[in-house]
Amino acid sequence: MPSKLFARTALAVLTAGSGMVHTPVWAAGDDPLSAIDWLSQSVTSPATVPGAPAIASLEPPVTKGGALPASVATTPLDAASPDAAGLIAPSVSGLPRNLWGAGRTEEIAQAIARDRMDSLPALRQLFLTLLLAEATPPADAGTGGRLLQARIDKLLSVGALEQAAALIEISGAKTPDLFRRAFDVALLTNNEDRACEAMQNAPGLAPTFQARIFCLARAGDWDAAALTLQTAAALGQLTGAQADLMARFLDPEMFEGEMMTPPPNPVTPLDWKIYEAIGESLPTGSLPIAFSYAEIGPNAGWKAQIEAAERLTRAGTIAPNVLLGLYTERDAAASGGVWDRVDAFQDFDAALRSGDADRVAQTLPVVWARMQEVELEVPFALLYGRDLAALNLSGEAAAIAFRVGLLSPSAEAIARDHVPADATEAFLKGLASGKIDGLTAPDSMARAIAPAFLAPAPSVQTQGLLQGDRFGEALLAAIEEIARGVEGNLAGVTQGLSLLRVVKLESVARRAALELMILERRG
Hints:
Elements: H1 4-16, E1 43-44, H2 90-93, H3 105-113, H4 121-132, H5 146-157, H6 161-171, H7 176-188, H8 192-200, E2 206-207, H9 209-218, H10 222-234, H11 240-250, H12 269-277, H13 302-315, H14 320-327, H15 338-354, H16 357-373, H17 377-389, H18 395-406, H19 411-416, H20 423-433, H21 444-454, H22 460-467, H23 471-486, H24 490-502, H25 506-518
Antiparallel strand pairs: 1-2
Helix pairs in contact: 1-10, 3-5, 4-25, 5-6, 5-7, 6-7, 7-8, 8-9, 9-10, 9-11, 10-11, 13-14, 15-16, 16-18, 17-18, 20-25, 21-24, 22-23, 23-24, 24-25
């Protein structure tokens, strides 16, 4: 470790007297341009760096070295606007390439920014597909990447870090704003060294003092890191709290026994990583969901890993197998809360693997109740729906197994072979096939769903959007209509599902309808 003594001396000078650290004086271009208020201030605008080369000419891309996932299959588009970038081709997504049609970029961006992640799992997946779809940019898109950034910001806000990173990579865009996002993704996915390497390889991006100090220290250049901290303090570029935190990061032993200052509000990924480095990790449960990614790796405790994975799995941004692996990793350490879910999950998993239908019948109601408590019914169904359908169960276990199967990708096949036990199961079976003619709607939700499958009638709003060649915006509006229906305005359920069926998204409509009936999401 190079000259740690010199670094300590410099830090001692920095912290010796009051008045040496001033309030920050940020350049005009440094303010975040995004509604995401927790992005790290990792780089400054090139306008504030005299003589810096144009961002468009930067080489190599900021994703060099693997800071962003490279395993996502993508198809780049030959288009001048970065807004055309996407990870899912129309042939896969089922969405038209002219998704945004005659829409205006700013209106689409504002519609994307609205929160839809409390909606049904099927609608969350549709929304994520919209964000990741390859599509022709709106006519007024230009080359600024406004819609691309809106999509990336939404992905970050819902915890879809790998997807956001891959979208940044395939877009080829190299603006400071997108670099900040790529930098933070790398921090939260434990690729901080590669994030710093990418920053070093992009000379047109001027790192802010905190980012520069962090990366110098990560590279082992403690002397330069300490001098940079001194310079930042002398220039008034760090607050007292920021300087104190960076000094602790460079030499925690100097502050042994002293009280930690309260964490900043909001916490940025760079803040979080620094707190982790000095042994004062901040829990992610109260932070934006993107921070949960930082705790699903081996550096976090098992309980923190499980809770982070539950949060991300519920959002639909990581595969259920990640949670399966964590739930079954070892025996529960205690009881209550997450440990009750671990015990129930392990008991059921062992029973299912044994093939003993009686054991499954005993453990299924318990694990299903635990999954309902944390709204993980659909991930559970993705893992076990088909296997449960193959067992000969009866009573309560059979009723649960049927509903689990209907929440899985094998819903139609499972329904085809099922003999309904009552009117509700008969209606669910009909929904799985999209044929409910002659069936009795067993409750108010079913009565709202039925017209969409018998005589679809979208709302005036969504019909107007379709007629105006604004397909994507019509889908966004339909998702909102169904969400309002779940909250009590059941007409929205009818109208939103009708729109999905009119535009031939039949499988999404069926899944959403089944979830409305089974998941009891009634606001």
